[in-house]
Design a protein that fits this description.
Blueprint lengths: L12 E2 L1 H10 L3 E4 L2 E6 L3 E6 L1 H6 L6 E2 L20 H10 L8 E4 L5 H12 L5 E4 L2 H7 L25 E2 L1 H7 L5 E5 L3 H5 L10 E2 L3 E2 L16 H10 L7 E5 L5 H11 L7 E2 L2 H5 L7 E2 L2
Helix pairs in contact: 4-9
Length: 292
């Protein structure tokens, strides 16, 4: 079965050319992670599962990982709350990801869904995963084949090795506010960072945080990431590369996974994503925010 025996990925970012060859050789299992955030006047953004789009067209052999299903904590107060690492390992295994699997993750358009799953795998203790640069959009633009319908992969066993240091909660973020050794990075748009337009209940940003919008790390023409040197320069300008610790955040832990992914890929250690992000932060008026 493709990708079911150990194949060590050499990079956490792979090209469409590389993936096409790896699929032909049966070296990896590939997963569509698509979700859509649709503008909604009542809730700012409404989440819709990407499963219908996946069943309409996906990379051949790809399974589907639904962030609106088992990969969010149904008991959590906030949308997309990550399940416990042990639960993550269980559901990843049920979807065909085991200790010996090589995994490639992609989304139809926004790569933050793929980087979110990459991060969750790391939290569960699994490292042999990569993100497809450009995702399905680039794959299809190059005229590569797609399939319809659903793919059912045989279950596997993923042994959890939890990494709690990769996650930070509200109290940890509050303690980091004003700490010169910690760089808190907002992955939302510049307008949202300033407190303009749509927000999550209170406008603005966590006090003292800097801004590297995740959307600016992409080439809008190809949907691929910008060159690593450009991304590193943006993160360095925000103070993230020199900081002793970095805390990326956004609205609900999705866009910030792009920041987390790139910091890790660039060799930065001591990076902890604020999972509940502004969805939680804005709900407590005592937690400091800034605008402007």
């Amino acid at each position: 079965m493709a990708g079911s025996s150990t194949y060590a990925l050499r990079d956490t970012l792979v090209s469409t050319d590389w993936l096409a060859g790896a699929l032909d050789r049966g070296e990896v299992r590939v997963f569509d992670c698509t979700c859509f955030l649709v503008p909604d006047p009542k809730t700012t953004l409404r989440a819709e599962s990407g499963r219908p789009a996946y069943e309409e067209a996906h990379i051949p052999g790809a399974g589907f990982l639904d962030i609106m299903g088992d990969f969010s904590d149904s008991a959590g107060r906030f949308r997309f709350t990550m399940p416990a690492p042990e639960r993550l390992a269980e559901v990843f295994g049920a979807h065909g990801i085991g200790d010996d699997t090589a995994v490639v993750l992609y989304a139809a358009d926004n790569p933050s869904w793929a980087t979110r799953f990459w991060w969750m795998l790391r939290v569960a203790g699994f490292d042999n995963a990569a993100v497809l640069d450009g995702g399905l959009k680039k794959w299809r633009a190059e005229g590569r084949p797609v399939e319809r319908g659903a793919v059912s992969l045989p279950p596997a066993t993923l042994t959890p090795h939890p990494r709690p240091e990769l996650v930070v909660g509200r109290d940890g973020v509050l303690a980091a506010v004003g700490d010169p050794g910690v760089c808190i990075v907002n992955a939302l748009s510049e307008a949202q960072h300033k407190g303009e337009g749509a927000h999550y209940g209170r406008p603005g940003r966590i006090a003292g945080s800097t801004n590297v919008p995740s959307a600016t790390l992409l080439d809008p023409e190809t949907n691929a990431f910008r060159p690593a040197a450009e991304i590193e320069a943006a993160l360095r300008a925000a103070g993230a590369m020199e900081a002793a610790r970095v805390v990326p955040y956004c609205g609900g832990g999705i866009a910030a996974s792009v920041t987390t992914y790139w910091l890790t890929r660039l060799g930065k250690e001591n990076v902890a994503l604020y999972d509940a992000s502004l969805s939680e932060w804005v709900s407590d008026e005592a937690l400091p925010m800034e605008v402007g």
